[in-house]
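Summary of Year 1 activities. Much of the first year was spent building the evaluation harness for sequence design. The harness presents a backbone, in tokenized form, and records the residue chosen at every position. We chose the following record to illustrate the format because it has been used consistently in internal testing since the harness was completed.
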């Protein structure tokens, strides 16, 4: 976490700078990616969403993995055509007890 919006912004900029110079050697994993689109609108969320969309238009980004439930996907992500065109949806079924034993 961060203690201020400025600190959040600085960390986000540093992250994106590192990705830019990595030549596609970084996989960005965003747990609960739907939160980037905010269940509540805050300055930090709006900045993160805007910055992420900007960065996705650049060729240096190779792989971003975001996770969410199917309901969260439909509620927050699916409706955002600007964002969704950069991702491929992959549905994973919850493992069964039998799967765990393998």
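For this record, the design step produced the sequence shown next.
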């Amino acid at each position: 976490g961060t203690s201020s919006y400025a600190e959040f912004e600085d960390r986000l900029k540093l992250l994106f700078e590192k990705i830019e110079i990595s030549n596609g050697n970084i996989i960005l994993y965003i747990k609960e990616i739907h939160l980037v689109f905010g269940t509540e609108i805050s300055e930090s969320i709006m900045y993160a969403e805007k910055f992420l969309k900007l960065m996705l238009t650049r060729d240096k980004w190779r792989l971003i993995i975001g996770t969410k439930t199917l309901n969260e996907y439909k509620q927050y992500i699916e409706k955002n055509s600007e964002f969704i065109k950069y991702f491929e949806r992959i549905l994973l079924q919850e493992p069964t007890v039998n799967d765990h034993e393998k």
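The two ends are 37 Å apart (CA to CA). Quantitative recovery figures across the full test set are reported in Table 2.
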